[in-house]
Request: fold
Amino acid sequence: MPEILANAFVERASEQLPWFALVLLISAATSSLVSSERRRRLGLTRFLLGYLCIVAVPFFGVIVLRSALREGLEQAGHGWWAALWISLFWMVTFIVLAQWVVRRMPPTRGWLRDYRRAGRDIWRDRLARWLGIRSRD
Reply:
């Protein structure tokens, strides 16, 4: 059974990787267009690195890992419902652990910190402008 599961996982994951790349590319392009102020403050490279630290892990977990694992479990003899729940459990576990690693390991920790700091600064400036508060700078 582990051999069947591994073969199905590799086969299905290789089919899903182009979809993962396409969704990631569209998401990054859309975010880059919408978040022009954050992109301006960080520069395009730091902006994209920070953004990808946030979205790559969940997209990979949902698109590649879960679909490949579910397919492998079904081929290994699990029923549809069992495969669904087991793949959901492992998808969530992967996302939680991978995001924990991304938040704490260099260099992704710095990219994520810069991305979030730029967003916080932008919102602080917007709220000050909307509420008519003068900047202390």
Remarks:
- The chain has one domain: 2-131.
- The radius of gyration is 20 Å.
- The CA atoms of residues 24 and 55 lie 8 Å apart.
